[in-house]
Amino acid sequence: MGLRVASCGDETIQFRRCLAATFFLNAALKQPDSTYKVLSSGQTVQIHPSSVLFRKKAECIIFDDLIRTNNNYMRNVTRIDYLWLPELAPQYYALKG
What is the H or E stretch that residue 44 is in? Predict the structure, then answer.
């Protein structure tokens, strides 16, 4: 019986695509000042300092928790590809042509 080496590349992408399809209303784009703008509401938010993505500043993310203090912080953040949104939630996002 041999050991199977698992590649997490494709599986990770599929998992992140699934999360994007589920939390598409919680997608946010990075702004020039390193804050994020929630696409569905226009609200300005930041990644919570406890997140592993806090210093990475991905271009597009989804989140499942928003904490309101002096700032609006997103928690449980996942990096996604912006182009997945029109594909996974075409009823809400459309590519401008």
Answer: strand 44-47
